[in-house]
Model the fold of this input.
Amino acid sequence: RKEVEQDPGPFNVPEGATVAFNCTYSNSASQSFFWYRQDCRKEPKLLMSVYSSGNEDGRFTAQLNRASQYISLLIRDSKLSDSATYLCAVFGYGGSQGNLIFGKGTKLSVKP
Amino acid sequence: ETGVTQTPRHLVMGMTNKKSLKCEQHLGHNAMYWYKQSAKKPLELMFVYSLEERVENNSVPSRFSPECPNSSHLFLHLHTLQPEDSALYLCASSHTGNTEAFFGQGTRLTVV
Done:
């Protein structure tokens, strides 16, 4: 099983739609979780951290389910500018140092 | 001014060349990372430096040689690369521990 798995998509949705992505992780000892956004040919940018209690930032809501080992990202009222690849990242311990491990990303395309 | 700066942004090199990628962070972080991003693959962690000491080397070929002279600077020295090494090389930094990482804009490397 891969360490961090995401559905690659693409998710094609109309403007205004609500879309949700899931990301599963294999290491039950993982400590921290993040969602990043990556635009085409650009670097990943931190979108939000994912806390045990869940967190919300405007139209974006992130949830963590430790029992089932997945995190989710919900985007409400999608905008054209939300089109990007969304990467989940999990901080886990392997070797002598914790590492931030990324999924392959889920591509979102918001259409007019 | 961006927090993490990488140079050059683009690099084309022959298989017999020697070149270096540079990364500089202005965020006061004490951990720095090199990631490789190839098409249709997840971000691959190459090297981790924490407090200027290398703590992870994820089985990267010796033709890639990192250097971290201080907590703000990170280099990746390249020699005798192969065409399959063509990719986007991303530098990131963070505080040590399970915190989020911030990325530079990347160097898009093409080996011919």
